[in-house]
Amino acid sequence: MLDTIIAKVNLNKTVLKMETSLDDIKKTHSHRKDLIDSMQESIDDLKQVQMVMDVLDRKVLSLSGEVYRKDKMVLEFMAENKELKKFI
After folding, report:
1. Which of 9, 43, 72, 84 is spaced 20 to 30 A from 26 at the CA atom?
2. Is the dihedral angle over the CA atoms 4, 8, 13, 17 positive or is it negative?
């Protein structure tokens, strides 16, 4: 979980750095459309990765809760089964 948080922070930091650099390039070298377009495309790609990571993160949390509930049910059934075996 900590690895995921660190990766998301690093990704956010990278996007911010690229956006800042792109703004600087637009101000100082506005004629470099090739560079500007390429950087904007890379920023858009990274933002898409951020969105996917957020969706996956929420899905993992949801599935973790589901697994916990099912594990709890299994333990309850095992305890019930153990009690019922006493009557056989």
Report:
1. 9
2. positive
Residue 43's alpha-carbon distances to 3, 11, 14, 18, 83, in angstroms, are 22, 11, 9, 7, 60
Tell me how far apart the alpha carbons of residues 48 and 52 are, in angstroms, rounded to a whole number: 6
Nearest-5° Cα angle at 80, 74 to 85 = 125
Which of 31, 49, 53, 30 minimizes the C-alpha distance to 41? 49
DSSP string for residues in 9-48: HHHHHHHHHHHHHHHHHHHH-TT-HHHHHHHHHHHHHHHH
pLDDT, tens only, 3-46: 999 999 999 999 999 999 999 999 999 999 999 999 999 999 99
For residue 53, what are the domain limits? Answer: 2-85
**What are the counts of helices (DSSP H) followed by strands (DSSP E) for the chain?**
2, 0
Q: Which two tokens stand for residue 17?
A: 């750095």
Domain count, the chain: 1
